[in-house]
Amino acid sequence: MKEKINIALAQISCKRGDKEANLKKIEAKVVKAREQGAELVVFPELSLTGYVLRDQLYEVAENIPGPSVNTLEKLAKQNKVYIIVGMPELSEKTKATIYNTAVLIGPKGYIGKYRKMYLPTHSVFEEKRYFRPGYQAAAFDTEIGKLGIIICYDVFFPEVSRLTRLKGAQLIVCISASPGARRAFFETLTAARAIENTVFLAYVNLVGIEDGLQFWGGSRLIGPNGKVLVKAKYDEEDLVIGEVDYSTIKPIEAFVPTLKDLRPELFDKLKEHAEKL
Which position among 45, 62, 73, 127 bears the catalytic label? Predict the structure, then answer.
């Protein structure tokens, strides 16, 4: 495993429902990021299709692997790069069950996927109407480190990031479609998740306006001490490259030993009291 890697935060806007156009944009960003030395290129939540799709989701969702993943595999192999993309995933077992999924692809092809656990269904959000929640945390062994993935609202629930970290992830990637009204929450919570787990956290958010919903961008790479290492622009497309140096985790873990000081018996109490809400 490499000690240092370069990660590209590919903050894009999407054409709703137009997978072909979005794949062309993804390809252009991957090529540009690779020219700048990136070994991992991360795109936002549902970046294959756009976020506000409602019933159109049933038309654009795909199996994984499927046609779009096959296209991304070719792109990753040609550029010798790892790619994370968000997309609506059609269940292999039913014809109308959809997941909000992030897919990880490497130079040798498809590696794995993560299904969003927490689906916001309040104010402007209606994800539970369309998506089925995932049930498994994800951490993948790769040549560029052990990578964990979470999606947007998952970051509000510390247990998701904590479990991902305990599965061995040293870099947690959070892909997102956050509107501007939630900006302060995400700027705070992404730093908190990095600090409390002594882990690198890469946050990649959509930009643009979809059906009146404006996404604020602000993608960032955060170190295990909570420091913002690189940050993308607000409210416009951007591509920024940051360095992840895994060797910095050890001294920070020793200085702030949150994992060593875990009290696992409290998780049993959490379950007990949560069931009585």
Answer: 45
- CA 55 distance to own-chain centroid: 23
In this structure, the number of other CB atoms found within 10 A of the CB of residue 13 comes to 18
User: Which of the four pLDDT bands, split at 50, 70 and 90, describes residue 137?
Assistant: very high
In this structure, what token pair is assigned to residue 57? 């989701």
For 198, the 3-state DSSP assignment is coil
What is the separation, in whole angstroms, between the first and last Cα of the chain? 44
Work out the mean pLDDT of the chain and round it to a whole number.
97
Which runs of consecutive H residues, i.e. helices, occur in the chain?
19-35, 57-60, 67-79, 127-130, 158-166, 183-197, 249-255, 265-274
Q: Is the dihedral of CA 208, 193, 242, 87 positive or negative?
A: negative
With a CB cutoff of 8 Å and minimum separation 6, the contacts of 113 are 64, 89, 101, 102, 103, 104, 138
| List of domains in the chain | 4-274 (3.60.110.10)
Q: Is 116 a catalytic residue?
A: yes
Chain center to CA of 12: 14
Options 14, 39, 152, 174, the catalytic residue: 152
User: How far is CA 232 from its chain centroid?
Assistant: 15
Q: Is the pTM of this model over 0.85?
A: yes
